[in-house]
Amino acid sequence: MAQFMSLGDAVAALVRDGDTVAVEGFTHLIPHAAAHEVIRQGRRDLTLVRMTPDIVYDQMIGMGCAAKLVFSWGGNPGVGSLHRFRDAVQNGWPRPLAIEEHAHAAMANAYAAGAAGLPFAMFRGYLGVDLPAVNPNIRRVTCPFTGEALAAVPALRPDVAIVHALKADRAGNVLIEGILGVQKEVVLAASRALVTVEEIVDDLGPRSPNAVVLPGWTIAAIALVPGGAHPSYAHGYYRRDNAFYLGWDDIARDRASFTAWMKTNVLEAGPDAFAAHRRRLAVAA
Amino acid sequence: MAQFMSLGDAVAALVRDGDTVAVEGFTHLIPHAAAHEVIRQGRRDLTLVRMTPDIVYDQMIGMGCAAKLVFSWGGNPGVGSLHRFRDAVQNGWPRPLAIEEHAHAAMANAYAAGAAGLPFAMFRGYLGVDLPAVNPNIRRVTCPFTGEALAAVPALRPDVAIVHALKADRAGNVLIEGILGVQKEVVLAASRALVTVEEIVDDLGPRSPNAVVLPGWTIAAIALVPGGAHPSYAHGYYRRDNAFYLGWDDIARDRASFTAWMKTNVLEAGPDAFAAHRRRLAVAA
Amino acid sequence: MTSADTTLAYTATEMMTVVSARALTSADVCFVGIGLPSAACNLARLTHAPDITLIYESGTIATRPSVLPLSIGDGELCDTALTTVSVPEMFRYWLQGGRITVGFLPGAQIDRFANLNTTVIGPYDRPITRLPGSGGAPEIMTHCGEIFVTMPQSRRSFVDKLDFVTTFGHGQGGDHRARLGIRTKGPTRLITDLCVFEPDPETKEMTVTSIHPGIDRDQIRDATGWPVRFAERVAETAPPTDVELETLRDLHARTRRAHAADT
Amino acid sequence: MTSADTTLAYTATEMMTVVSARALTSADVCFVGIGLPSAACNLARLTHAPDITLIYESGTIATRPSVLPLSIGDGELCDTALTTVSVPEMFRYWLQGGRITVGFLPGAQIDRFANLNTTVIGPYDRPITRLPGSGGAPEIMTHCGEIFVTMPQSRRSFVDKLDFVTTFGHGQGGDHRARLGIRTKGPTRLITDLCVFEPDPETKEMTVTSIHPGIDRDQIRDATGWPVRFAERVAETAPPTDVELETLRDLHARTRRAHAADT
């Protein structure tokens, strides 16, 4: 059953050095505040899993949290490269980063397989490409009816899933709307799930009978962090801060400017700093 | 792109003798009116596919439409047996009925595999049971990572899917809410989909961003049939006619009473008869 | 419970329902079948287990029906649910995903290892009686943390050998489940109108552990198609309390009124 | 289009965008990438293909953004969509399910058979430049009915041999796709800032079929890392019409205003 905690307590309780951690959110609902807390608490040797390592993983990798990255697309969406990710892969700074690389279809299916309690995911893909030659976790399985060889990858079962969502009720049931990404799958696939939310309400209120709700008993901890997805966004709350994504290119390009930015905005800040983003953007909306 | 047609024209255009036809709806949204039209048009030699052949298939089987049934649970839900189904299997009346029998998990996964364009579905199941000994379409596939043997069944790709839904907009986009069953999967798995709806509206109106909507280009024909799910129900329109399900047991128990009921209520009736169910129940609600 | 809690007469079905309900707790996530299991689960919710999570295979999660559904997918279940998912998702993420603590199953036939037959009486290809078939049962039995089987007892249904194994309980007993790679407990209780069976810790043969008030061992033997084993210590089942009975009867009365109003 | 339709000067990127847009029809269901493809698809929607269905891999189906998204999952895409599905569903039911008629893909490197590299420059284990990786591209290329590749042309990116095959276009050419069991067409157009390539019907080598106004064959040869083949009949690409340009520029201006207002 979900425990309501401060973000600091939740990260301390759920995320351990060496864990496999999936911080998810497909453009929408990326839990930046929670990732910052992991950085502040100095977690090390994490295997970070994420379809689209963008700014949030550029920060975690650049701060030395990660020993390995499992991913399918690493870039700053609509802007360009991730300089910290590149620096880690190309130059081993601040530490070497092992990578396990997939395509989106593989990762999406692997999370779904994890949520479904299956040992592997099967799909039609990886035909004629070089990735299977460099990733031993891409194999083939043969259809027992047609003989077709299909792609197989291991299910993703992270130790910890970290996601942001819109709101939770007092029983810890969590509502997600808008772009869903793999939020539901990663929570159900993980051993422990940490969810940050924009607000906690008495009742989730009128909604579609088929609304995407994660029951409280699928979640380990919920932390209230208004604005906690910034510079990503929360449907119905605030919009994506596209200017921040554009600006990140300059901040992250250089080790020194990156480190200075992280010191000021992460190491010496706290989750409350995110509330400002919520307010500012809510006014503008 | 979805064509708007009368139910008679839609069935005539889409359903051919010998087709594999899946009439779906998991308790909710069962397209009884469309099934009646198939019976009236005298379609023969159909392979009928449905997770839960209940009254709707008792009627089609009893009227001799089916050569084969693919299913996972054949009964009158909450009431008891399907007498026409039994009579066909046990006594070959009105004609012999071949069966391909599965469990729900297999059928649900097989529809999803069909929707996903895969040749087969894979799941953990059928362990220690007798069904694989009598159904050659239940096989095993081995996880290439763990060596675990998992159950495999062929994807379901019916020629025709027939479902009932709440409403369509003028562009043929169809909204489903409430108990979803496999409605979306069977439409996407089939070569041709026929959807009956409670109403046609200019615009689907305010709804969840994640509402279950089938785009018009996934549907072949839409027919307006208010009340067309009776004695099943349509979320927000009318309720399940539980008394009809209870009463069906007596009607269907005897070949003569069944045949008489079908003559009066199906062969000599038309889709308009269903509108009465809608009105009656809407008033009572 | 003391005898002072029980002043009302009750039926065998009410006894079965109450015993089934008592086995549930607020911490359970329960896969509910139609009929007696549905009554038992909602009785538990309305008495000692208010926070129990009820899931029906139609996709309704954490539903709180005020009346009992006739089918597995009545509108009432969706209207009162936390959310409703598709049937493929229900079988994949929720059942196979291992998120259900307890499931209820009935059978047309059961054997001493709580394997179940709901497929056919007689040969599969030339059935004497064609039954509904598997439904969700084979995978419910595999994936739920544990299973309660509820069936009224008779020699016709409690048989020495099943005509067809629709659903694998403890198989041939012992470690048969583990040998098939199944990690859940399987049938931990068999609740009948006469008594409660539980699997022997070693052999997994279903063994009588509690006998309902007014029933004797010969009645149980007469209604069972195999030589019944009794545990070393057999309890007497506590009779339904007045609170349990009144809550259950209110639920049934509400259900009857609601269904009558629908027609 | 006659020259009278074109009175405005235009950039090479505008030319690429307009040519890409023209290849689309109202009947298309299009898997849209960010950047030029997104501009092209929305330009088509706002001009000659008003009923085109645009799908972004974030799960937004039949979206009609009034401004261009910066990312594949901006809120604008969800707000204006018919519906939004999960990413696993997008890849399973919609892309792998074969429901997309055309997809747009870019590459950091491309070869003569329109295979693409977006993974790495240099050796995989010791990269000179680490690129973003596969994303959805390998399966977009396999599952969409056909693929339009859009890339500005240069010897650095139009190479004789890819450092890494991220995405399989026509492989080694000929029937290579069919031999792998792929039933879709693969890259049917390669639209650059200089010209349009289409695959030779037999060899599948990308072959110049249309050259943009003011560009000559040597410019194309100079910007290509393999000996370029020209079709027997090479057309001159019609320049962007004023309507196309004005619609595109309005779209970009709206986008700039909206993004500025967000900050």
TrEMBL record, chains A, B:
SUPFAM superfamilies: NagB/RpiA/CoA transferase-like. InterPro entries: CoA_trans_fam_I (IPR004165), NagB/RpiA_transferase-like (IPR037171). Signal peptide: none annotated. Pfam families: CoA_trans. GO terms for molecular function: CoA-transferase activity. The keyword Lipoprotein does not apply. The keyword DNA repair does not apply. Keywords: Transferase. PANTHER family: ACETATE COA-TRANSFERASE YDIF (PTHR43293), CHOLESTEROL RING-CLEAVING HYDROLASE IPDB SUBUNIT (PTHR43293:SF3). This is CoA transferase subunit A. It comes from Rhodoplanes serenus.
From TrEMBL, chains C, D:
Gene3D superfamilies: Glutaconate Coenzyme A-transferase (3.40.1080.10). Transmembrane segments: none annotated. SUPFAM superfamilies: NagB/RpiA/CoA transferase-like. One of its GO terms (molecular function) is CoA-transferase activity. It comes from the Bacteria. SMART domains: CoA_trans. This is CoA-transferase subunit beta.
